[in-house]
Amino acid sequence: MPQIVLVITSAEDVTANLVIEALNERQAYVARVDPADVGPELMFSAYISSHRPEWIGRLRSPSRDIALEDVGAVYYRRPSPWRFESLEKSARDFAVTEARHGLGGLLASLPNCRYVNHPANIGRADFKVAQLQVATRLGLRVPATVVSNDLDAIRKFVVDHEPVIYKSFRGAPRATDGHVAAIWTQRITPQDLDDSLSITAHLFQEEVRKTADARVTVIGRTVFASRITTPDGALDWRSGDWGELVHDQIYVPEPIKKALRAYLDHFGLVFGCFDFALEASDNGGQKSEIWTFIECNPNGQWGWLPDSNAMADAFADVLLEGWWP
User: Fold this and answer.
1) Which strand (E) or helix (H) includes residue 130?
2) Contact (Cβ atoms closer than 8 angstroms) between residue 57 and residue 70
3) Residue 139 in 3-state DSSP?
């Protein structure tokens, strides 16, 4: 019988700590592993054959010796980037590829195991173009959007849909010193556009005249939601001091809850962090809010939210459901 919850993440992941604490309270056996430690600090071996059609083997670190067949659930968070700093570039590139396909492939193929979320499904659900299409098919409202490197097509979109915002697909790459930069959502005018747009892909959307944002976190079938407002009404709340954000609980309309659960099912996800723009509406004197889907992070941060302890409990419940005594 499986006995272990395997948490795959970096040592610095404080969000994962919340889930580990919740699992410890349930007296579950938890093992934390960062695949980037592969080498003397993380050894592994696995075996399969026609007579034994599922991988068996062990993961060994200075503090853990884990039988792969004992893993009943995986909480896949945010492992560190592969390292191999001592190797020169071509050897490092080779080692990274081999480690990703070998150890990474093994950790994504554990038999009879519940993944929250499976790394392949995280990757599939990480494309914003796919997110917007699935959201519209499920009846969610989305901003008019163009994805292009064609200056004429982009300029026409900006003129037709002003005001328009630009946002990156994935953000800035990690710098050589290890720091991560950010590209915040920003307003665009036709004068901002030039031929340099042809170099790569870009995403532009009509701006939603929002009064607030909503972060909706779905864990299993449980829904947590916060209205987020900023003191200065910033276009992108991530760009300021997170300590100054105002959080209020918010009711999520049932049709949206139903759509979000269907969204997760579509991508094979157990968990997702959804972002919505909230727009005030006055329909015949009946005040309400229009919810516009912006994106879903299939491996998003949630430890900073006011109800993070309840979320950690929900993660523990989902990870242990169906196999833990």
Assistant:
1) helix 128-137
2) no
3) coil
Q: What residue numbers bound the domain in which 188 lies? A: 144-206
Q: How many whole angstroms separate alpha carbon 289 and alpha carbon 225?
A: 15
Residues 148 and 62 in one domain: no
* 282 in any annotated domain: no
Look at residue 316 and give its three-state secondary structure. Answer: helix
| 5 within 8 A of 30, measured Cβ to Cβ | yes
φ, ψ for residue 134, nearest 5 deg? -65, -40
Q: How far is CA 241 from its chain centroid?
A: 21
18 in a domain, yes or no?
A: yes
Are the C-beta atoms of residues 103 and 41 closer than 8 Å to each other?
no
Query: Sheet holding 71-76: strands in order across?
Result: 29-33, 4-8, 71-76, 114-116
Its pTM stands at 0.92
Residues 111 and 45 in one domain: yes
**Is 138 among the domain residues?**
no
* Whether 37 and 104 share a structural domain: yes
One domain, residues 24 and 96: yes
> Following DSSP, what letter does each residue of 187-219 receive, concatenated?
EE-GGG--GGGGGS-EEEEEPP--SEEEEEEEE
Side chain identity, residue 269: L
Contact (Cβ atoms closer than 8 angstroms) between residue 6 and residue 71: yes
Alpha carbon distance, N-terminus to C-terminus of the chain: 10
pLDDT tens for the chain, 325 residues long, are 789 999 999 999 999 999 999 999 999 999 999 999 999 999 999 999 999 999 999 999 999 999 999 999 999 999 999 999 999 999 999 999 999 999 999 999 998 899 999 999 999 999 999 999 999 999 999 999 999 999 999 999 999 999 999 999 986 666 666 565 678 889 999 999 999 999 999 999 999 999 999 999 999 999 999 999 988 788 887 777 778 889 999 999 999 999 999 999 999 999 999 999 999 887 766 778 999 999 999 999 999 999 999 999 999 999 999 899 8
The two tokens of residue 229 are: 């407002």
Number of domains in the chain: 2
Q: Same structural domain for residues 88 and 20? A: yes
